[in-house]
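Input for the complex:
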Amino acid sequence: MWTATTVEELRRLRASTPGSVALVPTMGALHAGHVSLFEAARADGHAVMVSIFVNPTQFGPNEDFDRYPRPLEQDLAACRHAGVTGVFRPTVDEIYPPGQLECLVTVPVLADILEGAHRPGHFAGVCRVVAKLFNLVQPDVAYFGQKDYQQLRIIEAMTQDLAMPVRIVGRPTVREPQGLAMSSRNAYLTAEQRRQALAIYRSLGKAKNLVEADRERDPSVVESAMQWVLRENGLQVDYAVVRDARALAPLQRIEPRGLDVVALVAARVGNVRLIDNMVLKPPMNT
Ligand code: AMP
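Predicted:
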C-alpha cells in the first residue's frame, strides 16, 4: 500500500495505477463503517484509494476541528488490512495553499436545510473538498455512506449537475450491535452517554414502525413520536423529521406511492452532536 502526502506524489502514484479506481473520502479515525466502504469497493473490482483529511472548511468556528481524533498509525493499519491500494493524507496547506483564492461549489436548497441550517457553510466545505479530491484522484467511482444521508444526496446532485465523470455509490450504515451508528465522534461519548445515544436508533425504529406497520400517514405524528423518544432519554434535538427520500423536502402526507421517505435525526448527548437516519417504505394500500 502506498501513501502520498503531496499532490505531486498522488498524481504520480495515481497515473501508475491500472484499471478502475474507487475513491473513498474520509476524515480518518476509521471504524467498521469506513472499512465497509473499502471492502465494497474492492469487491466491486476497483483499486481502492482512501483519502484521510480532516477538512477545516466543513467545520464551523465553534465545532470540533481541533479535537477531532487523528489516530494515523491505526488508520493506516486498517487500510492495509482492508486491501486498500493507496492512501492520500495531505496537510491542510497542501489542499488549501495559503494565498490561493477559494472556489465555492454549492448545491443551494439541499445544502441549506437540516444539517446545512444547523451548520452554516458545512456543505460548501464538503463540496469544495470532494470536488477537489475528485480532480486530484480522478476516480472512476466514489463510495459514500448513507450514514451521512444528506451529504450523499448533495454529492450525487453535484456530480450530476456539473457532469463530473465519477459514479457515486451509496452504502448502508454500519451499526454497533445495539443499533448505534458507527461514527468517529462516538469516541467522545462516556459509557452513560453511549447508552443515552441508543435513543437515536430507537427513535428511528419508532418512525419505521409507525409508518410501515401502523400505516401512519401524518408526518407530524411520526415526528412528535421520534422527538418524544429522544427527549425522554435526555437528548437535545436539533431535528427529528420525516422527509421525501430524494429532495429531503417536507411532506404533507406520507403517501404509499412507491416513493421512499427517510427519517432523519440530529441530536446532542451532552456536547456531542450525532446524526443518523433510516429509509422508510410506506406499504401500498391493499
Ligand atoms: P467521515 O470520515 O465521517 O467523513 O466519513 C467518511 C465516509 O464514511 C462518508 O461517506 C460517511 O458517510 C461514511 N461513513 C461514516 N460512518 C459510517 C457508517 N456507520 N456506516 C457506513 N458508512 C459510514
